Amino acid sequence: MKPFTYLDGLVCPLDRANVDTDAIIPKQFLKSIKRSGFGPYLFDEWRYQDTGEPGMDCTHRPLKKDFVLNQTRYRGAQVLLARDNFGCGSSREHAPWAIEDYGFRVVIAPSFADIFFSNCYKNGILPIVASSEIVDQMFRECADKKGYQLRVDLETQTVRNPAGEWFTFDITPHRKHCLLNGLDEIGLTLQHAGDIKAFEKKHKAAQPWLFA
Amino acid sequence: MTGKTLYDKLWESHVVREESDGTCLLYIDRHLMHEVTSPQAFEGLRLAGRKAWRATSIVANPDHNTPTNAWNEGIKDPISRLQVETLDANIKDFGALVYFPFKHANQGIIHVIGPENGTTLPGMTVVCGDSHTSTHGAFGALAQGIGTSEVEHVLATQVLVAKRSKRMLIKVEGKVGAGVTAKDIALAIIGRIGTAGGTGYAIEFGGSAIRDLSMEGRMTLCNMAIEGGARAGLVAPDERTFAYLKGRTHAPNGAQWNKAVAYWQTLTSDADAEFDCVIELDAAKVEPQVTWGTSPEQVLPIGAKVPNPANEKDVVKRGSIERALQYMGLKADTPIDQIKVDKVFIGSCTNSRIEDLRAAAGVTKGRQKATSVKQVLIVPGSGQVKRQAEAEGLDQVFIAAGFEWREPGCSMCLAMNADRLEPGERCASTSNRNFEGRQGAGGRTHLVSPQMAAAAAIAGHFVDIRSF
Ligand code: SF4
Fold first, then answer.
1. How distant, in Å, are the alpha carbons of B179, B286, B454, B457, B465 from that of B362?
2. What ipTM describes this predicted complex?
């Protein structure tokens, strides 16, 4: 997992409530054998005029030009600004996989669906809960100013707008530690790599046939 | 101090570290893999730039998606083919101790090839992204199924994050009657404890009837531990285990062999060990079993009648009987031996080993498939089983009876390849799951032993193998 420390990221506003995981990544893509490569199909039905299929080359598919991801001013955005109950629906981990693969590292919303929220942390995405007032203000500022960026600092748990205004957000110490250091469960286990190696050595000496 | 159970000994000999809440890092000796549950795990490793911790712990082969006939034509379904080719590529990149690609002479169901090549040994911890990993407990190995994220975790770290299970002893004493097999013991146990009876437990099977079982029989029994809700089943290793393993490709040899056997002999539950739960069964009372419903616990002896929901007072149970009868297209009170079958499947990681095929051939020899039966598939569990069966002429017995002799694989156990039931078709199957749609959408599965399946193929309906 990529560590997350701080980010100066372009903001892309997705002004809808209750965005579900089927909208984030439609079900036909679950047949895939991969957990990468979902980025081109993120919000597939909203993004393209035709119906996407796994493995499709998206470079020449007809776009729905109005959709925010298709607007040049938001190209390269790393912060997704969203509305209430973002990520509701199924527990598919393909949803955070698609968001991360597209290039987003932060999602800011007034509220998130539970499973999606915790799936984000497992995949190096920082979901931030902000008050409806702050989210409203960000939507307005984002519409008014091209190239609207936010600085998201995990260490100090702050988000700062270009005018220098800032707010703090909550995160559990364990999740913060994992994200800051890029540790997933594997990463955490590997902090004990020395113990594993020591055990392995002893185990091998006692039962060498297990290592033949 | 009380003694230790076999499970405790296996667990404690693999704990790398333990947290105060009992969560352990458990060292994994053997990692089995097939094509369906591994691709995202390898992908995860790749994305994180990680390597396999110990590639020589991996034994892999495709089995779920591979066809069982016309191998020269390859895998026709492009999605199936891609999954299989992905496993090829992943093993090429990350390495493995043993890999049998599609069409390799030794390819087969992963739970058959593991033991057969001596890569499952007593005292090991074994994992696989597959619930029927419990099979390997037949050797006195702590073997359990894991999910895809855990597959990645084990690949990267060689340990599993896990907590100790409770311990259950199922004791089967006495001698089984003629025609009664390990499959019948397994089904009778599940009928008794229910599909959730073993949840949270590791089950050790003991008693004289279990010691009398062949290694094939013990594998059948442990295979179905998961159908009783237990992640792991165990049988203590003994002389029969050692005899089975001796000389197998990856089993120890020479001085190592003697040292290994000396250790393996300590892998039994101490006489004063305590279990959290003990269940006793009289082997002599176990009859040939047939499942009638859509859960393995919906099982009865061959002489019984399909249950009548009207006799069930519990509303929840009554509802589930009604639903099962409806799905299965069965009338209440129908004698089980009057149920006609459309197809027969002899195979799967439960019953596709040489002993199973010998038993089925023994029943079949000199007889013919009933004309009402559309198809009888005999699918050996591996290339080695297939060759052995052919050397013994078993294939000819089956072919002469009008059965189809196929290439190894999972086949109609879960119908991920082209072998499947059509809606409404009824099948006598030696596999382990009779869930709705398991063998094909709308298909109806009755789980039985290989002998009972062969007899149903010949009679056209279930029959009591003891009087067949
Ligand atoms: S034979 Fe059936 S139960 Fe066994 S591994 Fe294959 S699909 Fe699973």
1. 11, 21, 9, 13, 12
2. 0.93
